[in-house]
Amino acid sequence: MPSLTRTVLPLALACALLGGCSSLSSSTSQADTAGGNARVPDAGALPAQTTETQTKTDSTLPQTPVVDTQQITRSATMTVVVSDESAAATRLRAIATAHGGVVTTENVVSGGEKSYYATSTIVLSVPADELDGALTDIAAVGEVTLRTIQSTDVTAKVADVGSRITTMRASIARMQELLTRAGSVTEIAQVETELTNREADLESLLAQQKVLAQRVAQSPITVTLTRVAVVEPNPVPETGFIAGLKAGWHALKVFGVALLTVVGALLPFLAVLALIGVPVVWLVRRRGGARPKVSAESNRPSGEDAPTL
Question: Residue 285 pairs with which residues in a beta bridge?
Answer without folding.
Answer: none
